[in-house]
UniProtKB/TrEMBL annotation:
Name this protein carries in UniProt: D-hydantoinase/dihydropyrimidinase
Keywords of the record: Hydrolase, Metal-binding, Zinc
EC number: 3.5.2.2
Cofactor requirements of the protein: Zn(2+)
Transmembrane segments: none
Domain (Amidohydrolase-related) ranges: 47-419
One Gene Ontology term from the biological process aspect of the record: pyrimidine-containing compound metabolic process
Gene Ontology molecular functions: dihydropyrimidinase activity; metal ion binding
UniProt subunit comment: Homotetramer.
Pfam family, one: Amidohydro_1
Species of origin: Frigidibacter mobilis
Amino acid sequence: MSTLIANGTIVTADLTYKADVLIEDGQIIGIGHGLKGDTVLDATGCYVMPGGIDPHTHLEMPFMGTYSADDFDSGTRAALAGGTTMVVDFALPSPGQGLLDALQMWDNKSTRAHCDYSFHMAVTWWGEQVFDEMKAVTERGINTFKHFMAYKGALMVNDDELFASFRRCADLGAIPMVHAENGDVVAELSARLLAEGNTGPEAHAYSRPPQVEGEATNRAIMIADMAGVPLYVVHTSCEDSHEAIRRARMAGKRVWGEPLIQHLTLDEGEYFNADWDHAARRVMSPPFRDKRHQDSLWAGLSSGSLSVVATDHCAFTTAQKRFGVGNFTQIPNGTGGLEDRLPMLWTAGVNTGRITMNEFVAVTSTNIAKILNIYPRKGAVLVGADADLVVWDPAAEKVITAASQQSAIDYNVFEGKTVKGLPRFTLSRGHVAVTEGRMSSAEGHGKFVARPPKGPVSQALSAWKELTAPRPVQRSGIPASGV
Ligand code: DUC
Ligand code: ZN
Ligand code: ZN
Ligand code: ZN
C-alpha cells in the first residue's frame, strides 16, 4: 500500500520546490510529478517538511520527589499533534545507579511511544562502572552524554567528573551535553532568598540569574576544549550563554546551542504580578528571561550561532507544582511544549520574518539530525529517508488551550495564544498519525532509533593536543636539600 502526498510544496533546510512525495513501507520512494499512490493526501496550499525532531524531553522521569506527568504515550501523542515525529529523551540514572540499568527502565517505558524516539544518557555520578558502561551505551546506539552542572546534592557533577567524562566521550566518538548553570551559586542564592523570606515562585528566577548560566557555559566550553571534544549546550536561555557559544564557534570549536521555544516566546513577566499557580507552572531551569535575552536568542537562530529549537518538555500538574508552596526550591522544575513547539515557532518566527521557512526546518529537524548522526534517515525529504513528514498548512489557525491538548497536565504555558500554521497531516514512518488535529496514531508504533557514534572528530583546534604533547623537563638545578 503506497501513499502519495500530492500538490504540496516541499520545504527542506535548503530548498523550496513543488513536487509530490510517494511513500511505501514507511519510507519515501519517490519525489516528483506524475507519481501514483494507493492513497492520496491532498497537500494543496501546504508545505511538506521533515517532521520535527525534539532532542530534549523528559517523559515519566523521576525528578524532585515525583515523576514528570507526560509519559511515552501522552508525550509522543503531543509531539505528533504538533508535527514532531521524533523525540530524544534523557535516560537518567539516579546517582549510584548503573547506566545500563537506567537504560533498561527507559526501554520499558518507551514501548508505548507513538512516534520514533531515541535516548541521551545522563552521567549523574562518576566511577569505574560509569566509565565502563559508557562504551556499552554507545554500542546500544546512544552517542550523547548529558551532564548537570546544577542540582547540587542530586544530579550535579563537579569539574573533575566533567573532565573525565568528556575525555571518555572523546575516546568513544560521542558528544557530551551540558545543563549549564553554576550549581554552587544557585544553592547559595536559594538559601539566602529563603532566609530572607522570599519563598514564592518568583524567587526561583532570582536564584538563577543569567550570569549563573553564562559562567557555567564558559566553563563547560573550556573543559570540552581541554578534553578535545565537541559540546552541545542544552536550553541556552540568555545572551551570557549565547555569547560564550558564539565566541567558541568563531574560534573554530564545534559547540552547539539549543534555545527552547518557551524562552523564545515567554518572558520573566510570567513570574511577577501573577498568582502563585501561574508563576509556579512556569518554574523551570533556566527560568524565563527578559526581552534583551529573547532578542539575543532570535538573533542566534537567524545568524546560525544557535542551532536547534527544543522544548525540554518536562510537564508537571498544578498539584505537583504545589509541593513547593512555602518553599520555591521544592517546586518541580519543568514546563511542557511538545505539542506547541512548531506552531509557536512558525507563528513567532516565520510569520514575523524573523526566520525563513528553510531556517525553520533546519532548527526544528535537520540540524539536530546531523548533530545526532541520524541524517538523512531523519530530518530530510529524500528518497530512502523515513517518511516522518508534516504537511503544514500555513493558513490554519487555532487558540492554544489545555482543554484541547494531548499532554496529561491541567494547564498550558501558552494558554490563549493564537497560532497560525498547523499540521494538516503528520506522518510517522508513513503512518498517518494526525489529520487536522484528529489523532489516528498508534501506541507502540514508535521504534528506537540507534545513533552510531560519530567517531573521534579532528582535535586540531582543541587544546587537548597541546596539553598532551611531550614537554621539556628540567633536568638540572634540583636543590640538594632544603631551600
Ligand atoms: N530543567 C527543568 O526545568 N526541568 C527538567 C530538568 C531541567 O534541567
Ligand atoms: Zn536541564
Ligand atoms: Zn532537560
Ligand atoms: Zn503504523
